[in-house]
């Protein structure tokens, strides 16, 4: 069994569904596909350095969560919908063909970040086009919309919650966003 987790940015799968990823990785192969390397944050650093830092952080967090393989589509931050073309669609098809996922996770349509909404839109269209028959799950990054938190499915991550939190702390370059989320996630747990 295989699960593919789609994320707009390198930290999104960890923040949005990291506990579930850690839980699933004990029983099956978990793959992640990152659309953008998030090169726009932090804005005071050179983009190439940001990409290098965020890539290293993502690899380390993936190891903690048990993600077996990580793909990057290398789209520009805040330009995901614009940059997603037929070539990138073919890359996605090849990933699906290679891994044949039983489950996919991607951003919710209720997530307020433009890149997260772009990934949601792309995945909804793509999964429909390929007539995907597996299970679809959506996750939210609660910083954007945490007052409207209304899950349609809840995984019990009691045994993997601390692993998720350990993986989140790897994203030191994103401390401005990650620290408030840590408190929100602990309160909701």
Layout of strands and helices, then pairs:
Layout: E1 2-7, H1 12-24, E2 29-36, H2 47-65, E3 69-75, H3 80-83, H4 86-99, E4 103-107, H5 114-129, E5 135-139, H6 142-145, H7 161-168, H8 175-188
Parallel strand pairs: 1-2, 1-4, 2-3, 4-5
Question: How is this structure best described in words?
Answer:
This protein has one domain: LmbE-like (Rossmann fold, 3-Layer(aba) Sandwich), CATH 3.40.50. A five-stranded parallel beta sheet has the order 3-2-1-4-5, with helices on both faces. The longest helix is centred in the first third of the chain and has 19 residues, at about 45-65. The chain has about 190 residues and is of the alpha/beta class. α1 links the parallel β1 (about 1-5) and β2 (about 30-35). The chain contains eight helices and five strands. The chain has helices at about 10-25, 45-65, 80-85, 85-100, 115-130, 140-145, 160-170, 175-189; strands at about 1-5, 30-35, 70-75, 105, 135-140. About 50% of the residues lie in helices and about 15% in strands. α1 packs parallel to α2 (about 45-65). The chain is globular.
